[in-house]
Amino acid sequence: YGVDAFARDLAAAGGAGLITPDLIPDEAGEWLAASDEHRLDRVFLVAPSSTPERLALTAAAARGFVYAASTMGVTGTRASVGDDAARLVADTRRAGAARVCVGLGVSTAAPAAEVGAYADGVIVGSALVRALVDAATPAAGRAALAAVAADLAAGVRAAAR
Asked: What CATH number is attached to the domain comprising 123?
């Protein structure tokens, strides 16, 4: 199938870009070319362990935003956002990123407000999926999803900028 065909089909379907969690810019030659060709944003990740050189490389290669992983590890609900997230956002901006969004561990209004105070965006995945999966019926899933989204939005709106 191929990278270029995927990018073409993503753009044709109305996609704006892609988060590539397991692809680093130095190994993304095909994706960089295809995303340029099809005008897609490309979102690469940085982590609390990223070096200044890695932050600069990622900021230069990303388009749309840089995804700052709030903590080391896999996705899912956490008790709090990592203490290093605000520093990582500041360091990534200093490295040249226009927009930095934070994900991993955001599942309720409180961490959404915390992240919303210093980041350009709040990334939520597992909490939304869990709302759907844990529901007894599709209608209950939609209602649960709406409630989680409303809670998260309230947190972001409450963020002191």
From this structure: 3.20.20.70
- pTM exceeding the 0.85 threshold for the entire prediction: yes
User: Is residue 138 included in any domain, yes or no?
Assistant: yes
What's the structural domain count of the chain? 1
> How high is the pLDDT of residue 160?
59
Distance between CA atoms of 149 and 61, rounded to whole angstroms? 30
End-to-end Cα, the chain, rounded Å: 45
* Within a domain: 12: no
User: β-strands 66-69, 45-46: how paired?
Assistant: parallel
Q: Which residue has the tokens 């930095």?
A: 100
How many Å apart are CA 72 and CA 84, to the nearest integer? 10
Residue 121, beta-bridge partner list:
101
What's the token pair of residue 10?
A: 């993503």
